[in-house]
């Protein structure tokens, strides 16, 4: 089932950019990097999740992202195989070459994209692994397109044969516990690539509720999965994520064992996390949150999960 709130609501004029990469919506610097995927990029935003470990809010599949001494591996040079505009504000780039042993650590994981600007300076943005074809060594990245910025310019003009670089692998992604019966996913457009990547891996019989805020209904995408998915599309108001927060605060939680994943602007993420942990009394082990960008920030951290907000049931 697909529903939408206030389909005639005005979409915000984009003076800020690259929202599926992490950080500010102004691409003067950047999910981090601008909003997305891990965008996203976070398109994600955008960015790592893995297994729970060491009391961290995220489930890590490897070393602590924030720990000192993490080994930096060489960048991989990749080539654009195809560039497809999915919507007015989303471009999908499929890259290949030098990815034979590229490391992917779970759905919705994030990595760095390195792009050359006209002045020859290389800039980095964080994006979500939309998908990775291990056999063909092909990496798919969804870029949110908004106001002018290096990632927007790159994705908007990308064509087959263009080259750029990526980090040596992705950071951990989100994987619900095997015993979970349901998952609720809450995302703005910056985290939409991560949400879709996560949903696609969930098994048949698993119940999925998704709250997704987009600038307009033209920005909706197909959300497919073996699981039973119920998406609710919310049209952004003049205040990004305001309607998403309202919808999240009004959620009715299913019965049984489940988990909640949240990816959006830092302040909105904290409002939702605070409500779930402090007002609803949920355990932090059942609530996974990550900021994909931060209003007014030029280079918001990739590792903002709001962990300073701890509920009474923090086990």
Describe the structure.
- There is one protein chain.
- The protein is an alpha/beta fold.
- It has helices at about 150-155, 190-200, 240-250, 265-280, and strands spanning about 5, 75-85, 90-95, 110-115, 120-130, 130-135, 140-145, 165, 180-185, 205-215, 230-235, 260-265, 285-295.
- The two termini are about 35 Å apart.
- The model is unreliable at about 5-20 and about 20-70 (pLDDT under 50).
End-to-end distance, in Å? 34 Å
Report the CATH topology name of the domain at 182-293: Rossmann fold
**What is the H-and-E element order?**
EEEEEEEHEEHEEHEHE
For the report, how would you describe the main beta sheet?
A: 7 strands, antiparallel
Q: Give the spatial strand order of the biggest sheet.
A: 5-4-8-2-3-7-6
The proportion of residues in beta strands is: 25-35%
CATH first level of the domain at 182-293: which class?
Answer: Alpha Beta
Please name the CATH architecture of the domain at 182-293. Answer: 3-Layer(aba) Sandwich
The 3D shape can be described as globular
> CATH homologous superfamily of the domain at 182-293?
Nucleotide-binding domain of ferredoxin-NADP reductase (FNR) module
Q: What is the total tally of β strands? A: 13
Parts with pLDDT < 50 across at least 5 consecutive residues: 6-19, 22-69
